[in-house]
C-alpha cells in the first residue's frame, strides 16, 4: 500500500482526473482520495488546472444549446438535431422559436416558483420566530413564578374543595404578605361553564369580611393555570367562587368552590 | 470542491440541479468536445447529446470510481470520438492542420471577455511541444498510457511522469 506522498508523486493522480487509468487503478486512487486529505487536495488542484485548460479552449457555447437540451429532457423523441440543418432549415427555425419560448416560459416558471418558495420560507421563518418569542416569554414567566415560589417569605396555602358544591377540586395560593402579591394555582379547578368566571376573594374572619382580589378572565387560555394577583390586602383566608362573567360585588356562597386559611 | 449536493439532486432528476451542473461545466465540456471535433456547429450537436446522456445516466455516477468532472469528461470524449468516426463527419472534415488543443488558444480571435483563456494561453505556449502533445492526447483525447506512448514514440513508463511534470509546470506558472 502506497502512502500519500507516493500517490502524489506517482503521476497517477493526473491520469485519475483525466479518467484514463485502467478501472482498477481508478478505484484505487478514488479510495486513496477518501483516505488521505493531502491526496484529495492534490487531486483538486489538478482538477482546477484541467477545468481552466478545458474552459480556455472553449469557443463559447451558444445559450440556445441549453434550451435545446432542456427541451430534449422533456421529450427525448423530439430533440432537434443540428445535422438536419441543410434539409430542414425552416422546420429548424420554427423548432428554435418553440424551443426559445419553452425556455423563456421555463425560466419564468422557475423564477415564480423560486419567488413563492422564498415567500413561503419567509413566512415560516416569521412563524418560528413568533413561536420562539412565545416560548421565551413562557419560560420567563415560569422562571419568575418559580423564583417567587422558592422565596422563604412565601406562605403556601392549600384551598381544599367545598365538598357540598364540588368534589375533587383544589387550589393553591402562594402568598407574600409583605409585597402583597399572590400566585393562584388553579390547576385543580374545572373549566368554568360558558358565561361564568372564577373570582378570588380575600377574607378576614372576625367579622367575616370578603373582598374581591380578582376575576380570572382568561382561565381557558392559560396553559399553566397560574395567575398573578397584586395589591392583596391583609388576609386570613382565601376563597374562590364561580360568578357570572365580569364578577360580583359579593361572593355567591352557593358557588364557593375552594376555601383555605392562611 | 465537488458539488456533491447538486450531483445528488441531479441523480434524483432535479431539473434545477441539472441547469446548475450545466452552468458549472458546459464550457469545459464544450472546450473538450471542440478540441476533438474541431468544428463549432458539430460541437454544439455533440454537446446536446452529451448533456442528454448526463441526464439519463446520472444515477450511474458513483464517487468511488472517480471525480464527477472526470465522469463528464469521459462521456464528452466518447461522444465526440464517436462523432468524428462517423461517415458524415469524415466526408466534411475541417481543420486538418490542427495539431493540439493549443491551436485553439493561439488562434482564438474572439478573445473578448475570455481573459482566462488569454492568461492560460500564455502559459501553455511556454510549454515544450512534447508537453502540449502529452496533455492533448491524455487529457483532451483520452488516450491510454499505451496509446500515448505509441503515438509519441516514448517509453510507456515515462508517460505518467512526463504528463505530471508538464502539468506541474503549468500549475506553477498559473499559481505563481
Automatic annotation (TrEMBL), chain A:
Keyword Membrane assigned to the entry: answer is: yes
Q: Which keywords has UniProt assigned to this entry?
A: Coiled coil, Membrane, Transmembrane, Transmembrane helix
What protein does this entry describe?
A: Anti-sigma K factor RskA C-terminal domain-containing protein
Asked if Membrane is a keyword of the record, the answer is yes
Spell out where the chain crosses the membrane.
91-108
Q: Which Pfam families match?
A: RskA_C (PF10099)
**Coiled coil where?**
111-145
Tell me what organism the protein belongs to. Answer: Psychroflexus planctonicus
Start and end residues of each Anti-sigma K factor RskA C-terminal domain: 93-252
Automatic annotation (TrEMBL), chain B:
Q: Which UniProt keywords apply?
A: DNA-binding, Sigma factor, Transcription, Transcription regulation
Source species, domain of life: Bacteria
Q: Which residues form the RNA polymerase sigma-70 region domain?
A: 22-88, 125-172
Does this UniProt record's set of keywords contain Phosphoprotein?
no
Give the family per the record: Belongs to the sigma-70 factor family. ECF subfamily.
Q: What NCBIfam families does the annotation carry?
A: sigma70-ECF (TIGR02937)
User: What name does UniProt use for this protein?
Assistant: RNA polymerase sigma factor SigK
Q: Which organism is it from?
A: Psychroflexus planctonicus
